[in-house]
Amino acid sequence: MRFLQIFSIYVKRTFRDKMFIMIMIVFPILLIWLLGNAFSGMIGDESLSIVHANMLYHVTDDSINSKTFIDSLVNENIDEFTFNEESNEEVALDKIKKNQADAYIVVDSNTIRIYKNSVYNFNGTMAELLINNYAEQFNLITTILQIDGSLLIKQPTEQISYTEIVSIKKDREPGSMDYYGVTITSMFLFYGLIFISTYIIEDKRKKTKDRILITPAHETTYQWGIISGNVFILFCQMLLMVVLGILVFNTYWGDNILIPILILGAELVMVSALGSLLGMVIKSESVIVGVAQLLIPVLVFLGDGYVQLPSTGTFGIIKQFSPLYWVNHSIFNAIYLNDYSNAWISIGISLTIALITTLLIVFINRARRVVHG
Known about the structure:
Elements: H1 2-15, H2 18-38, E1 53-59, H3 64-72, E2 81-85, H4 89-97, E3 103-107, E4 112-116, H5 122-147, H6 176-190, H7 192-205, H8 208-214, H9 219-249, H10 258-281, H11 285-302, H12 313-319, H13 323-336, H14 341-371
Helix pairs in contact: 1-9, 2-6, 2-9, 6-9, 6-13, 7-9, 7-10, 7-11, 9-10, 10-13, 10-14, 13-14
């Protein structure tokens, strides 16, 4: 019962806070609108299909496989792909690492190897799909001809294209509003730690917490009431942002919106635990705000929250230490690539941080009880 009372008091007090409404709801909506319009010509909106994916290739022999590859793909002048020959594998791979090429294809008599650019875009993925489709068609035709060679006579004289290039649906490519609808939502969940931590500090400063603990309420009950209240508030704020993004900015959250919701839900659990821990160990609201204003923009920057950053080299490794990197990219991969593997990684990272933080909170509470007898 005490838990529900503490939970209810925190929720009511936060929802009545005009600063919370301004920072967590009004400001994110304005930021999505500003950034979405400012970068509308740079993120998807003026490029409704794949534009000249840079494909490097090297044919090692004169086999049927190699000749068919040249005739069916390279010489077909496919609009969406530009093929450039590069015999030096080291040079080609270096160009991929530096984001100067999307894929490198090596063709011999028996195999086709493809090296795909790992930077988040669709060119590398579509290059892989193109080659997979070509290989399947080639293998099928080769098998048929081996069974019945007379089929060679039935082939038309004109060149058959073994592939059909189908670009991603134009209304389902990530535009600027789609991009910032996701990244701004995940960013402002992190600002939720300011409200829970400053609430705890204010309760200590005004002796409200002491008066609560005089009652039969246990300190752990107080702590979990606050954390649960913050989780509930951030969940409501997150759902509101998603709904407003869809209704106002036509933000696309995928066919299975449950996955992005789960990813963001794990993030807000982590944020609530971190905010509670900061409120326990830091005594000044100004220090909390200062730390948050310094740390959160860095995490957002590394998480590609403002602009897409290079994902190669040392910088690419540093980016992966930002929880928002995993949150944002796992959501985008789930929405546009139907790849849910990173979603479970992101959820695991968020919940692991939340668990470690919770254990620290329990340890601090026990240590304080020992000190105070």
